[in-house]
Amino acid sequence: MVSVASIALLPICTVIGDYQWITFTVMNLAFFAITAIEADRYLYFIENNNRMYEVFALKKKQRDESVERKIIYEDLTRREIEVALSILSNSSYRNIAKDLFIAESTVSKHASNIFKKTGVKNRREFLKRFRKKK
Question: What's the CATH number where 109 sits?
């Protein structure tokens, strides 16, 4: 038994079938346009690769310099950031623990993780590296 939907789609399918030449033409034009755009982009990269390397080198230099001056927030948990900011404000571990409602040993563990993640050995080095100069 033939469904009603297939009967309703029959005229549409017939029209599409009759106008396949339009579909193929549009698809071919789109393919050639994309190919031309990609070829032009590739030629641009070849012509300007020295400038691009300079831009990449500058970006890498800026990233490396920013890593030396800033705490890397992506690697620290929210609590580690809170502890790090408290350390930078020169609070003792006891006061940090009291302010954050955690044990002093937990603050010490967070500080140890912070020092590892930021590449410093101790609190003094951390303060020296990340404290803003006045």
Answer: 1.10.10.10
